[in-house]
Amino acid sequence: MGDGMSVLLRTIKAISLMFVSTELFAAAQMDLTPGVTAISQEVYELHTLILWICVIIGAGVFGVIFISIFKHRKSKGAVAANFHDNMTVEVLWTVIPFLILIGMAIPAAKTLIKMESPADDAEVTIKITGYQWKWNYDYMHEGFNYFSNLAQSSKDAVNSDNPKDREGINYLLDVDNRMVIPANKKVRFLMTSNDVIHSWWVPDFAVKKDAIPGYINEAWTIVPKEGVYRGQCAELCGKDHGFMPIVVEVKSEADYAAWVAEKKGVAAAAAAGDSKTWTMDELMAKGKDIYNASCAACHMAEGQGIPAAGFPALKASAIATGPVAAHLDIVINGSKVNPAMAAYGAQMSDADLAAVITYERNAWGNNTGDAVQPADVKAARK
Amino acid sequence: MSDDHHDHKPTGLGRWLFSTNHKDIGTMYLWFSFIMLFIGGGMAMIIRAELYQPGMQLVDPDFFNQMTTLHGLIMVFGVIMPAFVGFANWLVPMMIGAPDMALPRMNNMSFWILPFAFGTLLSTLFMEGSAPNFGWTFYAPLSTTYGPASTDYFIFGVHLMGISSIMGSINVIVTILNMRAPGMTLMKMPIFVWTWLITAFLLIAVMPVLAGVVTMMLTDRNFGTSFFEAAGGGDPVMFQHVFWFFGHPEVYIMILPSFGIISQIIPTFARKKLFGYSSMVYATASIAILSFIVWAHHMYTVGMPLAGELFFMLATMLIAVPTGVKVFNWTATMWKGSLTFETPMLFSVAFIILFTIGGFSGLMMSITPVDFQYHDTYFIVAHFHYVLVTGALFAIFAGAYYWLPKWTGNMYDETLGKVHFWISLVSVNVLFFPMHFLGLAGMPRRIPDYALQFTDFNQMASIGAFVFGGIQLLFLYIVIKCIRGGEKATDQVWEGAEGLEFEQLPSPAPFHSFTQAPEVK
Amino acid sequence: MTDQNQQKNENSKVVKKLLLATVFMFGFGYALVPLYNIFCDITGLNGKTSDQAAVVKAADIDNNRWVTVEFIGNLNDNMPWKFRPAISKMKVRPGEPSRINYVAKNVSSSSITGNAVPSVSPGQAAKYFTKTECFCFTQQELKSGEEKEMPVVFIVDKNLPKRINTVTLSYTFFNSPVAKKEKSSVSMAKK
Fold first, then answer.
1. Would you call B293 an interface residue with chain C, using a CB distance cutoff of 8 Å?
2. B95 close contact with C: CB closer than 8 A
3. CA torsion sign, A161 to A162 to A165 to A171?
4. Does position B161 have pLDDT exceeding 90, yes or no?
5. Contact at 8 Å (CB) between B256 and B248?
6. What is the C-alpha separation between B280 and B331, in angstroms, rounded?
7. Complete domains list, chain A, with CATH
8. What is the ipTM of this complex?
9. Cα A54 to the chain's mean position, in Å?
10. Average model confidence (pLDDT) for chain C?
11. Residue A160 has pLDDT above 50, yes or no
12. Is B100 a catalytic residue?
């Protein structure tokens, strides 16, 4: 609070800079991004064109208003004229704007038609599913899918009192698992949702499409440049709407192929994980990661929950310290009385469920000593 | 006439509770709107305080969502709309030479429903679980399957507001159609009366649709229907279509009466007749008609067929034409006038310029391919605040200063009025202009926390917000001071003022006016 | 006095008309629902497909063209099933009926009834996509641990616009509304 004065000074400086030079203010982006795809560049040009048309019309109209304000003042002896009608001008200022609009509509329609062309020659198809509050990327034809959550570094920094904690970590714009796509290939996105409407948006691709439960939408892009591109969910989807970013990594064709091969291997390994017996330490380590990614949004990092908002505490709770069977049931099948507690049975593997349940039963002084194994989960699913 | 012996006012609480007098009811509407302005504004202050810096400091994300939701609902339904109904109550009868509104008892009822509607809405803040937290647009399924228990109270509140608005507009229409003094033909009516007539028709057309959509929500939530639930054959996207079929005309409901107010004020202080009266009327009517065929421009990203996107883009762009005509007409009214700049004129000139800026960003976002980038970002937030704060709210300020002397018989404090104007003007731009940059740079709306590159502009916006919010207390002081006394206003109040209320009634306007129909030249 | 009565009559005439308009518009709000569905059928908005089995006409197959059909299976609200198409895509001849199986398995400990909601992308393809047999026409019940093959027989109309070469067929299983309702009434009772 003590830096109020310096903020005020900075604000005044910022305002004055705004009018003096946009380059000096480049640290904070002020204009739409031109993006990296052919489409996003076209969109940017369209935006710039219309902005300038507005600026020119605005300058004209406001100019006339200001001339009036300064010249036609009573205090300067101005005497009111008597006209209040003029057919010619009225027709002109109806017809000319109409023509300008047509001039704007033509390039706009051209770009729109390009954007909405079908993407069936796409070489990669990714199904994007919005969840409260994360994304699932399903590489349909490769046979693997994974969740993409807000990065742990950002989660840790959200409630921190020290602003330094939020620096250098791409705060709120970083995820644990990025979407990966190949450069220079047509990539097709199919959007849908698991619960409410979300909207998948990457400004650099000029792609924003709603993910609607029960329905699919599609969009496509071709990204010529390798790199990392960031975006956010653009449709209010509940409590953590502001905390489900999108990160897309564009790799060369070869690197992409290698990544896919590796991912397929991981999928196979996860299947293997379901059949082995885990040690307590392994379960706790894996469980903590899963808990932070999937549970902490409501039950909070220390298991204290937000009871006022209907999210119960797990610390010393009847479920987390009572019989294992009831605990398995609520995590696999969801709560029968509280719709906020989703069913995780279909989202997580046996090993993931075993780990997270073990973690909940032993963290924050819940020390029940129970080590739940994937085999127990498998049995409970029946 | 039978009412003539009634020229003393009733006294005590009963005067207000059972009032059937258009001036008293107008006053109550205006005070109600004023109180709501501070409640909704308080919520805006919470929002801006949380957004002052990155990280969550003051509130949790769910409460933040409740604040954005209630702020929107209160400002739209509790501030802007009741304020305009207040103006209509006060002014329509005086402007058309009628003794009162046509249906005085219904007038009383439509006002007294409002405190209950907003009491219900605000009570959700104290309910277990959460107040409505799905945005003022309450998209399904976030508000249906996933809505908090308090949603049903929200629905009840919306129903009450709808009933109140519909009764209010029926009253306005009947008054304007049936109660005009002899000689007051439709094309002689002041523009304010015209804009309200058209607004009232819009209200009657779309408030029932809003009532329908919340009723569908109610049955979806509690009685097993599936209007918006894909599982039962419904469609969440249909919610958006039906909502915006109401919502877009609603936007014009909030701006057309401001056009009317500005069209009254500019000629007065330019000492020159309004330029293009009839084109003003036709432009207002065409904006109203067009508003029914552009709703889907709020939802370009839901995945419409190309033909639909093109149609809604072109229809939306078309609205720029009649809106442009209005701005050009006001400019031409000022041109070669004999201008003075009392507070109402200052707010009106600011309205023209800043509303036009909001209109420009609106034109930009009508372009479908570019709107994919703007949609649901702070660019949109900047746009509708330019239109509704520096548009509708500034027009309300302008109108209040303009007619206060007629209402109270006293001039307001001109110096304080100018202070209010200049501080508001600067702070509101510091508040909302940077939001354009934030949106273009990629900051989504309705988020409680943001990435670091958005910090500077958010801080600017917050500082502007605190100043703009604070200075409205000065406006409250000015209004109270004016009611309690001050330099006596003349009957005409302003040198260039025209119209029955200024030419044929004393200041303050008597409790019962025009019990004998005036003569209209 | 008579003036006033006449005024009152005039007023109530207008009020009646306006009230009628209000009621009409309330009804119109509801009429938007079927209107919207008709609109969807015509334009393919949202990729809705018919929820009725189509009657097959004599096969009229376009042997000069291949259309790729992709299949997606989704579960809504973390429904505890596993649900996926047996194959992720296939090439079909327009006009020729094709069969594909989806596999669903209930991994929860209780019996669950689901509704499958179909969606086709791009939306314009929806009206050229007909199904003669589909598990989405009726509710599906799976006992705990039960696995079931669910067939779909479909035909891509040979009039499918030439610019569309890939059609995506998606099914999302929702916990059936009946089950949902019980769930919500329980939570209401808790309040």
1. no
2. no
3. positive
4. yes
5. no
6. 13
7. 19-115 (1.10.287.90), 124-271 (2.60.40.420), 274-381 (1.10.760.10)
8. 0.91
9. 31
10. 80
11. yes
12. yes
